[in-house]
Amino acid sequence: MNTGDGGGAASAASTSGANGSADAAAPRRNSKRPKYSRFTQQELPACKPILTPQWVISAFAVVSIVFVPIGVASLLASRDVVEIVDRYESVCVPANMTNDKVAYIQNPNISKTCTRTLTVRLLGSLVPKHMNQPIYVYYQLDNFYQNHRRYVKSRNDGQLRSKDKANDTSGCDPEDKSGNAPIVPCGLIAWSLFNDTYQFTINRASLNVNKKGISWKSDREHKFGKNVLPKNFQSGPLKGGATLDPNISLSEQEDLIVWMRTAALPTFRKLWGKIEVDLEANQTITVTIENNYNTYSFSGKKKLVLSTASWLGGKNDFLGVAYLTVGGLCFFLAMAFTVIYLVKPRKLGDPSYLSWNRNPGGH
Amino acid sequence: MAGGRKKRLRFSKIYTFTCGKQSLQEEHSQIGGPGYSRIAFVNDPNCFEANNLNYPWNYVSTTKYTVATFIPKSLFEQFRRVANIYFLITGCLSFTPLAPYTPVSAILPLIIVIGATMVKEAIEDWRRFQQDVEVNNRKIKVRRDDGSFDYTEWKNLRVGDIVKVEKDNFFPADLILLSSSYEDGICYVETMNLDGETNLKLKQSLEVSSSLQDDASFENFKALVKCEDPNANLYTFVGSMDYEEQQYPLSPQQLLLRDSKLRNTEYVFGAVVFTGHDTKVMQNATNPPSKRSKVERKMDKIIYLLLCLLVLISTIGSIFFGIATKKDLKDGRTRRWYLRPDDTDIYYNPKKAAIAAILHTLTAMMLYGYFIPISLYVSIEICKILQSMFINQDLNMYYEEADKPAHARTSNLNEELGQVDTILSDKTGTLTCNSMEFIKCSIAGTAYGRGVTEVEKAMARRKGSPLPQVPENGETEGDNADTKSPVKGFNFRDERVVDGRWVNETHSDVIQKFFRLLAVCHTAIPEVDEESGKITYEAESPDEAAFVIAARELGFEFYQRTQTSISVHELDPLSHMKVARTYKLLNILEFNSTRKRMSVVVRNEEGKLLLLSKGADSVMFERLAKNGRTFEEETREHVKEYADAGLRTLILAYREIGEEEYAKFEKEFSEAKNSVSADRDDKIDEVADTIERDLILLGATAVEDKLQNGVPECIDKLAQAGIKIWVLTGDKMETAINIGFACSLLREGMKQILITLDSPEIKALEKEDNKGTIAKASKASILRQITEGKALVTSSSTDAFALIIDGKSLTFALEDDVKDIFLDLAVGCASLICCRSSPKQKALVTRLVKTGTGKTTLAIGDGANDVGMLQEADIGIGISGFEGMQAVMSSDIAIAQFRFLERLLLVHGHWCYRRLSSMICYFFYKNITFGFTLFLFEAYASFSGQPAYNDWFMSFYNVFFTSLPAIALGVFDQDVSARYCLKFPMLYQEGVQNVLFRWRRIIGWMLNGIWNAVTIFFFCACAFQHQAFRKGGEVVGSEIFGATMYTCVVWVVNCQMALSITYFTLIQHIVIWGSIAVWYLFLLAYGAITPTLSTTAFKVFVEGLAPAPSYWILTLVVVLVTIVPYFTYSAIQMRFFPMFHNMIQWLRYEGQCEDPEFCQMVRQRSLRVTTVGYTARREARTSKVNHTTQNGFHAK
């Protein structure tokens, strides 16, 4: 906006220079005279914007004009997503065991099977809603600190990747060795692998859940070896979570791969599978849950989530609301500044603005 | 031949100096004992005993390091910084399991940082080394074994060598003078590099060796010098020389010091006694005090604050961590079983939760270490070096005539230049050129000389009237400047006198005597140029040179000096012919500060004995004979006028002496001269006093001590900028006051408070000569004067005051119990002039101001006598003028002319201050933003110490993604251009009052950082909760979350930068937007390499983030939300509460800068309240009196 002033100031400054012979003086031999360049004389052409009323108002206006549509679009995308959430960790405990849920979950003799019925409709309302495939099946854990440092560190990436390093269990303590034999995959993360299972039926017909392709491709191809087979897994005295088929290589154990991408926050979902058929509105789905995983020790919730995804992902109004709020706020600010500038034009050069004239310090 | 002529001179006969004065015997008896053990085998340095002595060679090294010591020593230097130790400790800890990140990522930045600083040290030291090489390889003639004198390098000299130093060369080591080209073995030495005194000093060899005048005579010369051990005392020397079985005592009179220069003497022979670092000058070399700027000192405080904050949040985190850990195992039941609390190590042991928590504190401190940016120090260094480069390269501070650009010798103090509150200036050589010009004289009661002094010009400008002295020829200032006198030191124009026309004046005989006195009464030595026949003079002081030159230009050409005579070409008034006259020189009564006069006794060709005398008016008028006071009234009047005009005056008088009287005087005088008692000098003075009486007044001379170019204008600008300027000078009060007016330090309407001991009661006491009572009375008197002055200053709020104090009073005023009151008074005054102050007093006053007010002081000076002051002040500026380099060598920044101070302070100082303080604020802001997101993430990871980001993201945060914009801010930012800096000097007060680096602003930036961190974290956490974040149904893992949050941080801090600066060159655009681009490029590159190295960052961008629209949308909204508050704040502040630089920006934007009247109005407002009254200013504005300068000449 104000480019060019720098140049003007520059020429003025250099000609008003005290020696005044900037042009005339032919450079002497061995002269220490600094060479003139706009860079060294700090006279580079520069843009010197200042926050004029026009700029302030138009900046706010532009922001609000851009943000409101994005906010609307985001909100619509989020509203489009159909999500069924079923919290089951309490209801699956038999009535006689509710006092000591930990004992319930730790007792291998009690059957953990639990049946739940879900209806395809909008979350929290009775509005029936059609769900288009693919429908993602998640489990959601709560109060589970996958981001705890002890937990995050407790893995060995080399061992997961290559067969040769099967004996390398450094960093996996205390789940590094079973007796003297190294555990593959070692470490707390793998050990605590989630082991609830779900079976979906609609009208007695079993609903097929695709368990392939639920993990990141880069993980399957580069981080988990194709020829690395689980060894001595869950063979210790204390059993953590799921067991792994010792005949299937790690790169195909997608539940493990998903689990080993640790979550950032203590409440997280993990992809469990994909349902690749549409679900009709108001359809009833029966889920048979093997409620194996112990969240009772740390009073964590367990939820089963069926959700579609939009271009923005799952159901979350936050972005839409944020955009609309910011857009609205900027619109308000634009209005407010317009009013202020009109009502109270600044008197130029009013000395009372100068802080040191108000309270001359030091003398 | 000049040499031959000089050879015949034996000055020791006519000078009264203490040639070969015997040192006290008791000192010499110590030779050989402890402290006096040095032995030099003169002319036999290779003998067996000499080889055993192991004295160093004459190699001098001023480097800080050698190749061997560089690594340990510079590392030690580095780790003297508290912050570096902190980083080293965290680096070491990072190798333990405590570390939240990999050791490499923690230690590498530290290595880079330390490495960079060490490279800088190495380069600086290399430069010093090169200087040493230059000095060490200078050539000197030394006697070889074969008897010839041959050139060799300085560094090859050894103790005992005999060297031959030729005219105008430096002495390569401390030498014992053996002989010189003069028969009596004297030589002239210029010691400017040692003590800053420009006058020449005389040295004389022992008589026994003075005859060794040619190369061959050293054939059989062997001597043994025993003397004191090397020490730093320049003015003492105790030793003896064993020569031909006799022992002769040696005194400082025979010692030629390294770094002083041989003058007026063809050559000298000397024996080397101290070499290399043993020389007195090297022993004196102290490492200059390391100075740190206020901004940096405050930065330290901020760092301590942040350290506290760091400890605080680490502790909070650890407490929560400990509680959570303890709960994990209760009665054998594990809570978070997936962490295996039952089988664990010390870092996470629920049974010993307290220990785990304490260890965790260390982890947390490492993790939040980003609060204390490791790169801040490096960035500051880089900025300062580049800022110094701009100072060095500034064409407006380049002095064409001397080919000297400004030179920032240290880059530490750039920003301090923007905060100067008080300038303490030397006078001679700093405000003035130290070139004397004979400009006026008063002969026989008639004033001659039409030259116009700077002061008169200033006065004329002020009054707006034509110059009072030259109304008839209508000379204007402009003409005057153009028709500069062609002869250096002579600016006398008067058609009544020049070209021999003085013979027609009424008192032509007096005029003749006057000029003759100028030509004869001096100690200068003529030098005839062989080709042109032109005569130049070498004199001890510029005043004296001016007199001889004046005499020459007026037809009394002094052309030859011999041992006993002075020859002058004179204009004979009768024949109008030039005739050669020779005056027989009988005695020289030297000048010294108590006598304040010098005289010669000569016998003219008619055989008459004449005493020719010149001296200060205070001593000369009282010595006039009754019949010699014919023109006293007029002369006094003229002298007063001259003094008013800022000129140095001397009174010229003469008398004829009768033969008998002379014989008596001669006898007493030689007795006094030859006496060896302690009061020898007093005796000489006494005898001289008896003959310097009953003089006949001839007239007075006036010599102008020329002000440097542009000094008044510069001072005016600095005063407008609210900087106090104090002058500390060795000159007498009158001269100092005159110069004060000349450079408008003293203004019209300013009330002068004089503090002096010249009161009659003190004088009466002095006569009684009771030292105790004098001191007591003096102190009481000073105290009284100060309190009175203070009362005066406090009683009136509108008047401006000037305080003038002399050196003697200063001694008392600087005593512990008085100095605070004195400082109070001094601070209350607009300007202060200390006259007759010694170098030490200068330093003391500087310290008083510095510590007493706590404000930034700047000392400026050119001579070695200013060194103390320069080193004491917060900033020392050396004038790299014609004088020695001593001041420059001990200064922080060297400029060639006083007037460059204006640009140095108002432009560079202001910019550097602004740049650096903004940069530091920004640095803390960006690191708090980053560090606080880590903390918030911790809160959601049960404070376990797991970082939210990949290790290398964190390490490179300060290196690649955010540092360059900060450095660009620190190097290039300009709030207003140089032109406006100079146009509105008041802008400078932003630095003095430290508005850009006060706590309010710093805390504001920190809060902004916290606000940004909170926004970034919670927006990311809410937007990327648990649901899928893109079409494929994938959820957000810690690596996606970290990279997203990091992207937001990079965007936010860079956009904040873009928003907070108002100066965009291409460089700014490149670094700001480039940093963001670099982040994405890094993410791409880092994600593409094998997962073994990239770990959690593997393909995180390509596979996870880039295809997800929610990632981009989130980034946009986070950036906007974080900067909208700041944007709103600055919009309001800019429009409704602009700071001074904002106002200038408005003016520029609205084009009002071109409106002179409007600018004047703004400038008027920007004047300091204390100096000029508010009402007076308004009156001035309404009456539209066009003051180009607010400072004026105060007509007394």
UniProtKB/TrEMBL annotation, chain A:
Disordered as annotated region, ranges: 1-38, 155-177
Membrane topology: Multi-pass membrane protein
Keyword Hydrolase: no
Keyword Transmembrane part of the UniProt annotation: yes
Residue ranges that the Swiss-Prot or TrEMBL entry lists as coiled coil: none
The protein, known as: ALA-interacting subunit
Biased composition, class Low complexity, residue ranges: 10-25
Compartment list: Membrane
Automatic annotation (TrEMBL), chain B:
Domain P-type ATPase N-terminal: 42-107
Domain P-type ATPase C-terminal per the UniProt entry, residue ranges: 888-1138
Pfam families for the chain: Cation_ATPase, PhoLip_ATPase_C, PhoLip_ATPase_N
Catalytic activity: ATP + H2O + phospholipidSide 1 = ADP + phosphate + phospholipidSide 2
Any one GO molecular-function label of the UniProt entry: magnesium ion binding
Task of the protein: Involved in transport of phospholipids.
Protein name: Phospholipid-transporting ATPase
Provenance organism: Colocasia esculenta
Upper lineage: Eukaryota, Viridiplantae, Streptophyta, Embryophyta, Tracheophyta
